[in-house]
Amino acid sequence: xxxxxxxxxxxxxxxxxxxxxxxxxxVADPEAVTQDVVDLGMxxxxxxxxxxxxxxxxxxxxxGFEYSTDNLFGGPSTKKVKCPFYDADFAFKIPLTNLSMGxxxxxxxxxxxxxVTYYGKTKSFVTLGVEVTTGDIDPxxxxxxxxxxxxxDVESTRFGICYGPTVNLTENNxxxxxxxxxxxxxxxxxxANVPYGSFYYRAYVKVNGTAxxxxxxxxEGNSIVTGDIDIENMSVTSSWIRIRTGYDNLSYxxxxxxxxxxxxxxxxxxxxxxxxSNNFHAKLIRVPFGTVxxxxxxIIGTTPYYGETKSFRRExxxxxxxxxxxxxKWASMNVGAxxxxxxxxxxxxxxxxxxxxVTWSNYKHADGSVVDLTKYNTNxxxxxxxxxxxxxxxxxxxxxxxxxxWRMPTVDEFRELYEKCDWVWTTQDGMNGFQVKSKVNDNSxxxxxxxxxxxxEAYSDGTLGVYWSSNLYKTYPYASLVCxxxxxxxxxxxxxxxxxxxxxxxxxxx
Length: 510
Hints:
The protein is mainly beta.
C-alpha cells in the first residue's frame, strides 16, 4: 500500500512539472518593439526596431516591419518587409525608398514565431515635402533672397525665380536660377532684364522634374513718367525713368503731336541728360499749333511703352505790321515764329499745314506725281489746267493761320523790299540773317536765314534765306517763285519746285 502511494505521488509530481513548463513557454513568447525612424527624407526613410527574445533561436522566427498609408494596415497600400538579421542588442533596421513625398505613413515592427505574428506599437512618420518661401525683392537692384526647405535625397534640383506680367507664373515664364543653395536653404538671384510696369514673381524649385512654387509677389519694374511742360521754353522739365541694364537696345524720350496718345511715329525728341534721380529734360522742336499732346516713352528692345498723356495749347503768335514806307506793311516775324529771329514753320507752296515731309505723293495740289497737278497749272503736260497763277486765300498760309489781315507777298513786293530798303547781314538771337531797314523811316525787320526743308531733311540753316511768294512760275507750273538770299547775294524771283518747304513772311495791305 505504501509503494502504491509513493507511485501516485511521483506521477502527480511529473504532471505538475510538465504544466509548469507550458506556463513558462507562454510567458517567453517573442516581442517586437517599434522604434522611431531615422534618416527621414522626401522619398526615403529608415525604420528601426528591436526584438525581445528568450531562448528562441533566430532560425525559428521571421521579423521586420509592416507599413501603410492606412493606420489599420488594410488595403493595397499595406506592405511587409523582412529584415535578414539583428545585431547583438537584437536591434534591426530597414531602409525604404521610392516613397511618396509629403505623405504620412504608419508602421510597426513584427516578429513571427511558430506561425504566430506578434506586433509592436504602431507609429507614424511623414516624408518631407518641399516648402518654398519667396523673398521680398529689392525694388532698386531687383535682387531677391528666397529659401527652400526640403530633403536631400533627390537626384536633381534647380532653384530659381520666375517672373512676368501675369499672376499665374510658372517656370515657362521668364526665369533666372541656380543649381545650389546655402546650408540654410537660401539663395539670392538678380533679375537683369526687368519688365516694364508692375510685374509678378515667385520662387520655385524643380525636384526630379517636378516644379514647386512659393508665394506670388509683385513689384514695380521699369517705368516712365511724363513730366510737366514748360510752355515758355517748350521743354518737358521733369520726366522720370527707371533704367535697368541687361538690354541691348533701350531708348527713351518725349513723343508729341496734334493727336491724342502720340507714339514714336509722331514727333520725337530725346533727353539731353539723365540726372542721378533718373529725371530727364527734353526740349520740343517743331511744335504744332493748337492742342498738342505729349507723353514720355521708353523702348525696351523693339517694344515701346508710354507714360501718361498730357496736353497743352500752343497758340499761333501773330507778328506786328511794320511800316517800312512801302506799298504794304511787312510782318515782324515769320508764320509760326515766336520772335523775330525764330525760323517759324516750313510750308510747301500752297499748303497751310506744316508737314514732317512733303513729296509729290502727299502734296496737296497733286494726284501723286509731278505730271498730275490738280490746282495752279498752266500746262496740260503737268496735269489739270486751271490757269491760276496766284494763291487763293484758302491756300495762303499767312491768310489761313494769321487771319484775313495778312497774306503771302508777291514777287513784285519782294523786289520793292529789296530795292527800297537797306539790307545788312547780321546775327540776332543766335540766328544769321538780314536786318532790313527802311530808307524813309527808322523802322526795320529781321529776315532770318532759316534755310529750307526738302522731304524730311533740313538744309542751309543760318546760311540761306528762301521765302515763298504767292506767284506760280508759269513756264514750269510745278514750281513757284521765291525770294532767295545769302550773305553775298539777293534774288527776288527765283523759281523752285513746289514740294520744297520754306518759311513764309506775311504782308498786310492795311
